[in-house]
Every structure is written in C-alpha cells, then in structure tokens.
C-alpha cells in the first residue's frame, strides 16, 4: 500500500514538472498551430481582418419598432418619439419594458383594491334593501319553474 502511494506521488510530481516545462517552451498561438518560443519576446502575427470568433466590446444595437418607441416614451426614457435615436441598446429597451411592467402591476393593484372597495359598498347597499343571494336565487328558481310550467301547458 505504501509503495503505491509513493508511486502516485512520484508520478504526480513528474507530470507537474513536465507540464511546467512544456508550457514555457510551447505556446498555442491564435491560429492554433504550435509555435516554439526560445525565451525571446515574439510578437504574434496579426491578420488583416479580425477573426469571426472574437467579441467586440460594442453593445449590440436594435432598431425599435413603433410599439417599442411608445414604451421608451411612456417609461420616461425620452420626452418625445422624435428624440429616440435610430438604434437603441437591448439593455435600454429591457429597462424601459421593466419600468412599464412595474407601472402596469401598480395600476392592477390599485384597480383590484378599488374593485374590492366597490363590492363592499354594493354589498352594504344590498343589505339595506334587504336583498341576499339566497333570496335572489330562490326567486329566480321560482320564475324558471313558472316558465317551464307555462311552456308545458302550451305544448
């Protein structure tokens, strides 16, 4: 058991030394062929056009639709639709949409509270008129029975 552990440690240290030596003498260049560097500072060859896989640090832009322009104005990002540039960033558009979502949710909360208050007021008026759902349902069923009886007599 002890000899296996020693063998593993020796193999591990050997590979670490090998990797350290290999990484200093061999480097992977941009066009992925191996290049030998002998301790000198070597400049990588630059290609005339940038490779397609590199990421430019520019923010991708989007041409807003008519509806998105309205959202940008409603969110308060711009005063008028004329002030909106030809292209805007996706982040700006997302921020405006999120602001509108929050405003719509606040409006829905306010409408729900107003509807609840209105139902309470209507319920209190119904109590004053001595109306209840049970009474209204019984009257409706009585009318339906009378209508069914009249229909049965006429047939």
TrEMBL record:
It is a single-pass membrane protein. It is found in: Membrane. It comes from the Eukaryota. One of its GO terms (biological process) is positive regulation of release of cytochrome c from mitochondria. One of its GO terms (cellular component) is mitochondrion. Signal peptide: none annotated. The chain crosses the membrane at residues 104-121. Its main location: membrane. Keywords: Membrane, Transmembrane, Transmembrane helix. Interacts with HSP90AB1; HSP90AB1 is essential for FAM162A mitochondrial localization and pro-apoptotic activity. Interacts with VDAC2; the interaction is probably involved in inducing mitochondrial permeability transition. Proposed to be involved in regulation of apoptosis; the exact mechanism may differ between cell types/tissues. May be involved in hypoxia-induced cell death of transformed cells implicating cytochrome C release and caspase activation (such as CASP9) and inducing mitochondrial permeability transition. May be involved in hypoxia-induced cell death of neuronal cells probably by promoting release of AIFM1 from mitochondria to cytoplasm and its translocation to the nucleus; however, the involvement of caspases has been reported conflictingly. Belongs to the UPF0389 family. This is Protein FAM162A. It comes from Leptonychotes weddellii.
């Amino acid at each position: 058991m002890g000899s296996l552990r020693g063998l593993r440690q020796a193999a591990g240290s050997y590979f670490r030394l090998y990797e350290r030596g290999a990484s200093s003498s061999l480097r992977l260049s941009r066009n992925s062929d191996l290049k030998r560097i002998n301790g000198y500072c070597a400049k990588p060859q630059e290609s005339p056009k940038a490779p397609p896989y590199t990421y430019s640090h520019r923010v991708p832009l989007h041409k807003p639709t008519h509806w998105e322009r309205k959202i940008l104005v409603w969110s308060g990002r711009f005063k008028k639709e004329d002030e909106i540039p030809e292209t805007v960033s996706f982040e700006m558009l997302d921020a405006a949409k999120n602001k509108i979502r929050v405003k719509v949710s606040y409006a829905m909360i306010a409408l729900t509270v107003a509807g609840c208050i209105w139902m309470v007021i209507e319920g209190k008026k119904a109590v004053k008129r001595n109306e209840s759902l049970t009474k209204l349902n019984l009257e409706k069923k009585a009318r339906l029975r009378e209508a069914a009886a009249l229909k049965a007599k006429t047939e």
